[in-house]
Design brief:
The protein is of the alpha/beta class. The protein is built from eight helices and five strands, in the order αβααβαβββαααα. A hairpin with a 6-residue loop joins β3 and β4. It is globular, with a radius of gyration of 20 Å.
Length: 182
């Protein structure tokens, strides 16, 4: 879906449905916010001394999400080298911390989101087609709000309810304001 359609909210809802007690971790990582040379360490962790500046061992996002879910947000921006490593982890269900020698078992539900057309990127050679097919076992396209105006009243009610709870007082808007939103 496009930027702002609620991909991260939907992923959180999927996680909450799978783990209603809230006991399983839900880890999100924005693949565009982390430089390519640090993404591997962020995803899989590293051992002390694995690279300059690695003064302690650090768990990666996959390890932190163990038993729960991980959302790889904007995966379409991930470089091809990192895509290869991710594909291997998804296929083998295990990974190694950077600089480590012990395999970690991956017990994590993996969700990926993007505002790009991954199929087109794969056709153009800018996204690994094997990773695309591994990730696309179940796709959800989220149309922009302009294409689902019928959702605006319900979304408005949810926002107003949450705001009322936060402010500890009732917040309402006029029917004219609702018409303007729609």
């Amino acid at each position: 879906g496009e930027t702002g359609t609620g991909k991260e909210i939907l992923a959180g809802a999927i996680h909450s449905t799978a783990f209603p007690s809230g006991s399983a971790p839900y880890v999100k990582i924005n693949c565009t916010a982390i430089p390519d040379n640090l993404l591997e360490s962020e995803l899989f962790g590293h051992e002390k001394g694995a690279f300059t500046g690695a003064v302690t061992a650090k768990k990666g996002k996959f390890e932190l999400a163990g038993g729960g879910s991980i959302l790889l947000d904007e995966i379409g921006e991930m470089d091809l080298r990192m895509q290869s490593k991710l594909l291997r982890v998804l296929e083998e269900k295990e990974f190694e911390r950077l600089g480590g020698s012990r395999m970690q078992v991956m017990d994590t539900r993996v969700m990926a989101s993007t505002n790009a057309d991954l199929h087109a990127l794969a056709d153009a050679g800018r996204f690994r087609s094997d990773l695309y097919y591994r990730l696309s076992t179940f796709q959800i396209h989220i149309p922009p709000l302009r294409d689902r105006r019928q959702d605006i009243p319900a979304l408005t009610d949810v926002v107003l309810s949450e705001l009322s709870k936060k402010l500890k007082r009732s917040i309402t808007i006029t029917q004219e304001a609702r018409r303007c939103l729609a």
